[in-house]
Amino acid sequence: MRLRDLEQALQRVRPFDTTLQKIDLEQFPTGFHIASRLVLAAAENDDIEGCVVADLGTGTGMLGIGCALMGASAVVGLDADLDALVIAAENIEAADVEEVMDLVQCDVSSMPLRPTGLPTIDTVLCSFVAV
What we know:
Distance between the termini: 33 Å
Strand content: 5-15%
CATH superfamily: Vaccinia Virus protein VP39
Number of strands: 4
CATH class: Alpha Beta
Structural class: alpha/beta
């Protein structure tokens, strides 16, 4: 998939409603422009296609959906906020990647090093905003 195609697909991912955004959880949206380049860079490094990818702090699912569209064999989106995961689930369905991407509600800062029930992860993606 070309950058332009990935950007167009990710433009359709619904972001956080700013009135529901939880600043204490550091919920800052990752725009489709940045997300597409991050995912494409990982794909060019052979870290997406055929890999199991974890999207830490998935929020509305932007990075995970990008990875699914770029050929990841499985994507696990992890987030502590159930409200964000509801939006992510809707975005996953709209992007038609339900067979590839799953969501897990959890606080990744307190996860065990080898959590049960999750596949072995090949690649981890996470976006953040330095403030």
